[in-house]
UniProtKB/TrEMBL annotation:
Keyword NAD attached: no
CDD domains in UniProt: Rieske
Cleavable signal peptide: none
Species, as recorded: Parahaliea maris
Keywords noted in UniProt: 2Fe-2S, Iron, Iron-sulfur, Metal-binding
Domain Rieske: 1-107
Gene Ontology terms for molecular function: 2 iron, 2 sulfur cluster binding; metal ion binding
Protein's name in the database: Rieske 2Fe-2S domain-containing protein
Length: 119
């Protein structure tokens, strides 16, 4: 499923997407060090809670960790592993990505494979 063009994702930032047109973001992508990584927008501490407190606010102020605004949990960007908070040791659900020849960022929403990092 197409999310966006790669140049629409700024370095060091995250952006949410609603690929199934459900009215709220269900997937988010982080671009860091030129790599792209994607996860489902659900905190593992409480399965239906979205992570950001406002649109695209997935990262802490320094851009180092993914943050759950409801529970204060912190997640490593590259692995999705919770490193602090009420779901310590649990992980975000990865969404494998591909980059098309035309620069489109594509997500495989039917897979629960390991994190799909695009370099």
């Amino acid at each position: 499923m197409r999310l966006c063009q790669v140049e629409e994702l700024a370095e060091g930032e995250a952006r949410g997407f609603d690929p199934l047109d459900e009215g709220q973001d269900s997937v988010f992508v982080v671009r860091r060090g030129g790599d792209l990584v994607a996860y489902r927008d659900i905190c593992p501490h409480y399965g239906s809670t979205a992570l950001p407190w406002r649109k695209d606010a997935y990262l802490d102020a320094g851009g180092k960790d993914i943050i759950c605004s409801a529970h204060g949990a912190r997640f490593a960007i590259d692995t999705g592993l919770c490193t602090a908070g009420p779901c310590l040791g649990e992980s975000l659900i990865p969404v494998p990505l591909q980059l098309s020849d035309e620069g489109e960022v594509l997500a495989d929403l039917n897979s629960n494979n390991s994190v799909g990092v695009v370099k």
